[in-house]
Design brief:
The protein is globular. The chain has two domains: 288 residues, Aldolase class I (TIM Barrel); 60 residues. Helix content is 49%, strand content 10%. By secondary structure, it is an alpha/beta fold. The chain has 22 helices and nine strands. α15 links the parallel β7 and β8. An eight-stranded parallel beta barrel has the order 1-2-3-4-5-6-7-8, surrounded by seven helices. The longest helix has 19 residues.
């Protein structure tokens, strides 16, 4: 792979590594950058590179506390919750960090039928979930039409009055025509991780199969947005390469989408490699990312892309998740399984993609969030009102989106507490809702919130602004 090949995409490998080689910034330079971050307009690639050169714990703590302030201003104490649903673990790729890789003969392979997908969704509805992420392996025997049928089936499921209100999807890259089919469905965000943006490292870990094509994956969001999908989610799998390079590459990807389509990514995911059966790289991580560096990663992404959601999965344990909520995470999975059919049949971890770090139930996660005074949100109002893509950002950047997100989060939380929570959890949750509502600081908004909460208490459901 020659230099021309490496640098012909929007990821200029030499440039990004070069930016990491500069001097450690002075205190005054750091202060200037953090003051810039507090203006909530984001940071440039060069700004982020400067902050990535910092190793002093006290200075890193300043970055993290700035990230906390940015998060509080934009998102408040709201955390959006979802659950992944794996529809299959058959895969045609050879990714050396993934249990689904084709050569893993020890993995029990499963592709769920439509009734099985419906059973998974029904289980999650009984738990109180309203948002799911539908995922499957890249199996050449399956088509986009098969996946679309799975989406439609998931939306059809009713459990009493409950149904899934938003489905995000994480499937292998499609061509534009395939994405046009996907865009016709009622999906939320299309998510796909580059895994590593370093083309040299990418080639080492993706040995064969469709995923071995670095550029095809790199430009997947261009095809998705060209096809009419408004919200896309990018991400890197931290541990495959130098985390500092991956952070800069994520910034470049966001910039590229903003320039090409007028809107950057809706979300950025920050998974770290976790152990996985039959996946050699997952059990011997090439570039391990420490907890301290992971906190730094999340904080930097938060101040660099202030209006972009940051997603954290149950790969991470309860302790580190709690810390990362403080530094910038805005969406989390809860009560998750990473193997097809595991919710309905209780089959443990057989056939799982990777090991989980947080095994708590949704109820247990929500209990801890209440204790820490976070608002667990199952909100889907913006998607259903058409506040997506550039329209969402047009409301988010002036700070107007909070007048929708906070109330809608409270409404979905009230629904959960009323319909699914134990009496003690309900009491604690209602007290938190009252506290947050009383602190809104705008009489007209507080009145609107109380009016809609009363509707929920009277039996109305799916209330949103």
């Amino acid at each position: 792979m020659n230099a021309a090949t490496l640098n012909k995409t929007f990821i200029d490998r030499d440039k990004l590594y070069g930016l990491l080689e500069g001097p450690t910034p002075s205190d005054s330079e750091v202060t200037a950058l953090l003051n810039k971050a507090m203006k909530l307009k984001g940071l440039s690639l060069e700004d982020v590179a400067v902050l990535l050169r910092i190793h002093d714990p006290a200075t890193i703590h300043r970055i993290q506390e700035t990230a906390h302030q940015v998060k509080e201003i934009i998102y408040g104490k709201r955390l959006v919750l979802f659950a992944p649903v794996y529809t299959g673990n058959k895969c045609s790729n050879s990714c050396t960090y993934c249990a689904f890789r084709q050569e893993n003969t020890e993995l029990k392979r499963t592709v769920l039928t439509i009734p099985q997908i419906e059973n998974e969704v029904r289980f999650l509805l009984k738990e109180g979930h309203k948002r799911i992420l539908l995922i499957c392996g890249e199996d050449e025997e399956s088509s986009i039409d098969d996946f679309v049928e799975g989406i439609r089936a998931a939306y059809r499921v009713k459990e009493g009055r409950a149904s899934i209100r938003r489905i995000n999807v994480e499937i292998a890259p499609l061509d534009v025509e395939g994405f046009r089919k996907l865009a016709q469905e009622k999906i939320g965000t299309y998510i796909c991780f580059q895994e590593t943006y370093d083309p040299v490292q990418y080639k080492k870990y993706h040995l064969k199969g469709p995923k071995a094509d670095y550029e095809n994956r790199l430009y997947v969001m261009d095809r998705a947005m060209e096809a009419g999908i408004k919200d896309v989610g990018i991400g890197a799998l931290f541990g495959l390469g130098d985390y500092r390079f991956e952070v800069l590459a994520l910034m470049e990807h966001a910039r590229h989408l903003e320039e090409a389509f007028g809107c950057g990514p809706h979300t950025v995911s920050v998974p770290r490699i976790e152990p996985a059966d039959g996946a050699p790289v997952a059990n011997h991580v090439p570039h391990p990312v420490s907890d301290d560096d992971f906190k730094k990663i999340v904080a930097l992404i938060r101040i660099a892309l202030p209006y972009t959601g940051i997603i954290l999965s149950t790969r991470e344990n309860e302790t580190i998740r709690k810390d990362l909520f403080h530094y910038g995470i805005s969406q989390i999975s809860a009560g998750s399984r990473t193997n097809p059919g595991a919710y309905a049949d209780g089959g443990g971890d057989t056939g799982a993609q990777f090991a989980l770090g947080d095994h708590r139930t949704l109820d247990e996660v929500i209990s801890q969030l209440i204790e820490d005074e976070y608002i667990p949100s199952f909100c889907t109002g913006c998607y259903r009102k058409g506040r997506v893509g550039a329209d969402f950002m047009d409301l988010a950047k002036p700070g107007l989106i909070k007048e929708f997100c906070l109330p809608n989060g409270l409404f979905t939380f009230r629904e959960y507490l009323t319909d699914y929570a134990s009496p003690s959890l309900r009491e604690r949750g209602f007290a938190l809702i009252e506290k947050i509502t009383a602190e809104v600081g705008k009489v007209s908004l507080e009145k609107k919130i109380r009016t809609h909460l009363a509707k929920i208490d009277a039996g109305e459901r799916d209330v949103y602004l």
